[in-house]
Design a protein that fits this description.
The protein has 2 domains: 93 residues, Alpha-Beta Plaits (2-Layer Sandwich), CATH 3.30.70; 375 residues, Peptidase S8/S53 domain (Rossmann fold, 3-Layer(aba) Sandwich), CATH 3.40.50.200. Strands 6, 7, 8, 11, 13, 15, 16, 17 and 18 form a 9-stranded mixed beta sheet that branches. A 4-stranded antiparallel beta sheet has the order 2-3-1-4, with helices on both faces. The protein contains 13 helices and 22 strands. A hairpin with a 2-residue loop joins strand 21 and strand 22. The longest helix is centred in the last third of the chain and has 18 residues. With 493 residues, the chain is of the alpha/beta class.
């Protein structure tokens, strides 16, 4: 099976810049004295350096609590956009002068910009032993170990909930909640940034994407026989899906708003009145996006604060490592995935060379960490190259696929396609996390991560493995290829 390193990336526009004195924007430590101006993220400082006087930009105002952040927005005359209440962040639109003024407001600890991000595009259940686990093991609920009883939140371009790969045998869609992030949409008249949309609405076609439908299928595609007899299923073919569409063009506020929604709603994603057997709690989020070229880990960012709050609440966060390749001389991995907090996983792309082998290779495009800095290394590998999943032939990302196939129905022409990227590796892990939570619902995110990384199969391609703390890992492939059966055994002790 042939495959390209990754589909062409979309250009993501950055809000234009302009006019604060560089010295005034020099960042300082968040631990600086209260009398010092709050530090400014490097991206925002550079953006403001060229921002015309009357031109507003979107900024995340971090406070000691949400009241301090709100007060700073109000005091400086900025326009409120949304809030991440549990982590004390108010998102607002303001001019460079207003942003600079906010630095001196009481309780303001950090100012962050609305940085651009991109999808990391570029199923091998045999190599991961995921299909073996579903066929031979059972969860704590007595059902086959297929992710049943767990919802996976997929933050992506959207989903087509009517796609044949996402339909249960008895009719309902695997997508139990369908939402859209609209916080930067000026036409939005509600105070909510993430809003529910009709369960049947194809949010991927609306956004002109396709990426999200492919990713959702990798997580939880139902067992399906294509017209040519090919049998497919997702990593967790019994899991439920909560899709949060951010559109095909990404900025960090939209993605962070989706993470914030999960933080506030993970226990009852369909509403408090909907039973868990109909709409299970969210136990893992999949995030197949990030800045091009990697970057430094920022512990003060809203993204990191949100994912750490999710880990504390029992929710695992999975990140695509990125598609920037590398040779270990620089860190090119996705910054939030570098978080050392237990239960936050960065996923490299493994290629089984279309044979189902466990002794495959690290994909050329898979982002490497800095060889001398283990904090930047991926945590684990999963299949990401030549992955067949749900698509629609008229969607941009699906048109880049290399092996379109027809689905089970007479009208399902080209509804499956093969795409590659760490975007495809991450949802394998998200689905596997759902299997592990079904195996042990009492597990913590840190225990789930330890089970995955501690039992990974050490395929030998690429950089040598190194002992780092309590794990053996490498700068290109992390601990190795995920092994679902071994991870379940480790988790259960």
């Amino acid at each position: 099976m042939s495959s390209r390193p990754f589909p062409p990336r979309r250009a993501i526009g950055v809000v234009g810049g302009a006019a604060l004195v560089a010295a005034a924007l020099a960042t300082t430590s968040p631990a600086a004295a209260a009398s010092s101006p709050a530090p400014v993220q490097d991206f925002l400082a550079g953006q403001l350096g060229g921002l015309a006087a009357a031109v507003p930009t979107t900024v995340l105002v971090h406070g000691t609590d949400i009241d301090a952040a709100r007060a700073a927005v109000a005091a400086t005359g900025m326009r409120p956009v949304t809030e991440f209440e549990q982590i004390g962040v108010a998102v607002a639109s303001g001019t460079a002068a207003q942003v600079e003024a906010a630095r001196g407001e009481p309780g303001v600890t950090y100012l962050e910009g609305n940085a651009p991000i991109a999808f990391t595009d570029e199923t091998s259940d045999v190599a991961t032993r995921g299909a073996e686990a579903a066929a031979t093991l059972t969860g704590a609920d007595g059902r086959p170990l297929d992710g049943s009883g767990v919802s996976v939140a997929v933050i992506d371009s959207g989903v087509d909930p009517t796609h044949p790969y996402l339909q249960d045998a008895d009719g309902p869609s695997a997508v139990v909640a369908n939402l859209k992030s609209v916080c930067l949409d000026e036409s939005n008249s509600t105070p909510d940034c993430v809003v529910p949309v009709p369960s049947f609405l194809d949010t991927d076609t609306i956004s002109g994407g396709g990426h999200g439908t492919h990713v959702n299928g990798i997580v939880a595609g139902r067992p399906t026989t294509l017209s040519d007899g090919t049998r497919l299923q997702g990593a967790a073919p019994g899991a439920s899906l909560v899709s949060i569409s951010t559109g095909a063009v990404l900025l960090i506020v939209g993605a962070d708003s989706a993470l914030n929604w999960v933080l506030e709603n993970h226990e009852h994603p369909c509403g408090a009145g909907v039973a868990a057997d109909v709409c299970p709690p969210i136990k893992v989020t999949n995030n197949s996006y990030g800045p091009t070229g990697g970057g430094a880990f920022d512990p003060d960012s809203a993204t990191v604060k949100l994912q750490r709050a999710l880990a504390a609440d029992g929710v695992v966060t999975v990140w695509a490592a990125g598609n920037d390749g590398g040779d270990g001389t620089a860190s090119l991995t996705n910054p939030p995935g570098q978080d050392p907090t237990g239960g936050i996983l960065s996923v490299a792309s493994f290629y089984d060379e279309a044979t189902g082998t466990r002794d495959g290779v690290v994909s050329d495009y898979s982002s490497r960490g800095l060889a001398g800095d283990p904090s930047t290394w991926p945590d684990v590998s999963a299949p990401g190259e030549g992955i067949n999943s749900s698509c629609r032939p008229y969607l941009p990302i699906c048109s880049t696929g290399l092996a379109p196939q027809n689905g089970p129905g007479l009208l399902d022409i080209g509804t499956f396609n093969t795409i590659s990227g760490t975007s495809m590796a991450a949802p394998h892990i998200a689905g596997i996390v759902a299997q592990l939570f079904q195996a042990d619902p009492t597990a913590t995110p840190a225990e789930v991560e330890a089970a995955i990384t501690g039992t990974a199969y050490r395929y030998t391609d690429g950089a040598p493995y190194t002992a780092v703390g309590d794990r053996t890992t490498s700068y290109d492939k992390g601990a190795g290829l995920v092994d679902v059966v071994a991870a379940v055994a480790a988790l259960r002790g």
